[in-house]
Amino acid sequence: MLDQYGRSIDYLRVSITDRCNLRCRYCMPDGAAFESHEAILRYEEILRICRAATELGLTKFKITGGEPLVRRGCSELVAAVKALPGAEQVTMTTNGLLLEQNLDALCAAGLDAVNISLDTLETEKFRQITGFPGFRREKLLALLRACCDRGLRTKLNAVLLPENREEAPALAALAADFPVDLRFIELMPIGFGGSLARVEPDAVLEGLYRVWPDLHATEEKRGNGPARYYRSAALQGCIGFIDAVSHRFCASCNRVRLTSTGQLKPCLSFDSTVDLRALLRAGCSDEELREALREGIFRKPRAHRFDLPREITEKRIMSQIGG
Ligand code: SAM
Ligand code: SF4
After folding, report:
1. For the chain, which terminal residue's Cβ has fewer other Cβ atoms within 10 angstroms, N or C?
2. CB atoms within 10 A of CB 227
3. Ligand 2 mean position, distance from CA 3 (Å)
4. Residue ranges per structural domain of the chain
């Protein structure tokens, strides 16, 4: 459906939990509080919202979190969303720790693609960024091989941080070894990301030109999002940049978000939401649910205010929102 600025909104990011098995510094460091189990939407509730979304013309769904794979029954939810008439694409964003053991079930459920978050290939740096001491590069490579062998479209996402800035070429080289895209995400000033140092994506791109001098921008559409992509003859996949702060792409934004507590969130930057959980739990009709969604999507703000921190009203942390 179209929002008030004529943008076509066809993509819903669905956070199914605010819990996670990592503690990324910029997202959910140690000590962050969790929602109660009752506050989190049940799968039937999530599915009802997704069905209403398809009836409004949304066709693409991203299952996210927190870490979606820490919630039991995640692949059954993927299958159920995928089975909705009108749901063309169901994808997932995960930190990958539990992916290998869930891969068969997710592929059987019809998952169309996976994004794996990976900020570093170095065990000690991984611990510094995420709190997890057990990262092994070989395990990650085996996971990528397993995804590619199954024909699952796979992308890697690295948030640009001072800690991994020098490692950018090594991370990007994964797109040489595997047919996967590596996207660098600019740190957004949401939650804990607001108090950390940001790395300029264009400075990183400069460094990549030195490794792959034939790197050139490509207009190919490689996913649901606003990443700008670059190709080199030496790479199987592309290198992408998702730089919402330095290259604002709000004019082509196609998404809204559903938090794990059932709040429809039209824009990352602002705290205004539509409380779909309250509606559902008050026994709303399908038409009332559709109307609330329609209204929330229509009123999606024109643009974020990441350039003006005092105008960012969102106080939730990223693990509560879903990224
Ligand atoms: N746990 C899963 C994962 O890490 O992929 C899914 C949820 S996570 C919140 C989704 C994405 O948001 C991850 O790629 C993560 O790196 C990104 N993210 C979290 N906080 C961010 C921030 N402040 N700025 C930019 N990206 C952020
Ligand atoms: Fe967990 Fe993903 Fe947030 Fe890291 S970015 S703490 S893996 S939800």
Report:
1. N
2. 22
3. 30
4. 11-321
